[in-house]
C-alpha cells in the first residue's frame, strides 16, 4: 500500500518548483522569511534591528531616516536598483565593505529574483502617509 503513495509524493515534490514559479510574489514572500528576523515590509513597517525595506528600490543606500546605518553604508553613494541589490544579496561585504549586516548571502538566482519581485511590490508610502 505504501508503494502506491510513492508516485503521488514524488509528483508533488517535483511540482513544487513549478508551483513557486507560478506565483513569484508568494515565493518572494517565502524567501523574505530569511530577512524578516531583521527587516520589515508592508503597511506599518518600521526599522528595528535592520532598516524597513518599503521602497528600497530607488532609495539611496543608507538613507532610511529611522535607522542608524554603518558609516560604510551611509557613504556608499549609490541608489538601490535590481542589479546592485541582487549583488548585495549575494555578498553584502563585497558590495559595501564594512557594512554591519550579518548575512552570508543568497546563492540561488531564482530566489534573488523572487525576493526582488516581492520587495518591488512594497513601494515607499506616499510622503506624509507615515
UniProtKB/TrEMBL annotation:
Gene3D superfamilies, per this entry? Cytochrome c-like domain
Cite the Cytochrome c domain residue spans from the record: 23-123
Q: Which domain of life is it from?
A: Bacteria
Which keywords describe this protein according to UniProt? Electron transport, Heme, Iron, Metal-binding, Signal, Transport
Any stretches that span the bilayer, and where are they?
Answer: none
Database matches in SUPFAM superfamilies: Cytochrome c
| N-terminal signal peptide | 1-21
PANTHER family with a match to the protein in the record: CYTOCHROME C (PTHR11961)
What is the official name of this protein in its record?
Cytochrome c domain-containing protein
Organism of derivation: Massilia varians
Amino acid at each position: 500500500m505504501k508503494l502506491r503513495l510513492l508516485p503521488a509524493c514524488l509528483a508533488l515534490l517535483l511540482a513544487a518548483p513549478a508551483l513557486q514559479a507560478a506565483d513569484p510574489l508568494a515565493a518572494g514572500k517565502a524567501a523574505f522569511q530569511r530577512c524578516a528576523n531583521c527587516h520589515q515590509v508592508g503597511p506599518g513597517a518600521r526599522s528595528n534591528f535592520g532598516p524597513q525595506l518599503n521602497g528600497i528600490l530607488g532609495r539611496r543606500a543608507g538613507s532610511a531616516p529611522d535607522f542608524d546605518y554603518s558609516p560604510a553604508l551611509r557613504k556608499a553613494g549609490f541608489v538601490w536598483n535590481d542589479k546592485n541589490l541582487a549583488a548585495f544579496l549575494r555578498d553584502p561585504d563585497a558590495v559595501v565593505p564594512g557594512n554591519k549586516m550579518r548575512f552570508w548571502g543568497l546563492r540561488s538566482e531564482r530566489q534573488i529574483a523572487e525576493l526582488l519581485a516581492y520587495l518591488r511590490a512594497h513601494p515607499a508610502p506616499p510622503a506624509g502617509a507615515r
